[in-house]
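Reminder to self: tokens first, then the designed residues, so the page reads top to bottom the way the pipeline ran.
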């Protein structure tokens, strides 16, 4: 299973959009406190539309508590400071839980934590001379859909076919 993990998210609309993505790809969404909003915030709910009842959500009190839960899973730290691009990482193993940890919108992941785990870090290439960072929900979609592509979109079979008569 793929797991989307947000470290201290602060923008409700991003979290709502990410919850929708998690639901669309059958991923579990983990939120690491403190959160910069309440989960019943109108912006979170609006961005997640009516998918909240289907979100596989786990909330953790802090980063150390979250880290205790991953067991034999594989952890990827998504940061613009990583040396390895996300498309060079191997996400193809569907028999191992894979955790994609994204930092806070304003300050990313803790620097001390990143320095201790550089081999787990991946990045999305960008021109950071003109852009400080990509939008968090866009970053999640980019990385997770690459993981799903490498996994042959496991679990995302086509649910319904278009009626060819309606396309005419």
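Designed residues (168 positions):
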């Amino acid at each position: 299973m793929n797991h989307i993990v947000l470290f201290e998210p602060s923008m409700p609309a991003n979290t709502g959009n990410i919850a929708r993505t998690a639901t669309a790809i059958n991923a579990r969404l983990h939120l690491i406190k403190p959160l910069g909003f309440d989960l019943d915030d109108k912006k979170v709910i609006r961005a997640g539309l009516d998918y909240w009842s289907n979100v596989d959500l786990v909330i953790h009190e802090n980063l150390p508590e979250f880290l205790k839960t991953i067991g034999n899973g594989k952890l990827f730290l998504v940061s613009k400071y990583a040396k390895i691009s996300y498309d060079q990482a191997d996400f193809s193993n569907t028999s191992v839980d894979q955790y994609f940890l994204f930092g806070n919108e304003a300050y990313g992941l803790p620097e001390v934590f990143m320095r201790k785990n550089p081999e787990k870090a991946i990045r999305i290439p960008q021109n950071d001379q003109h852009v400080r960072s990509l939008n968090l929900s866009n970053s999640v979609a980019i990385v997770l859909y690459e993981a799903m592509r490498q996994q042959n979109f496991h679990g995302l079979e086509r649910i319904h076919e278009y009626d060819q008569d309606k396309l005419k």
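Residues 136-150 form the longest helix (15 residues).
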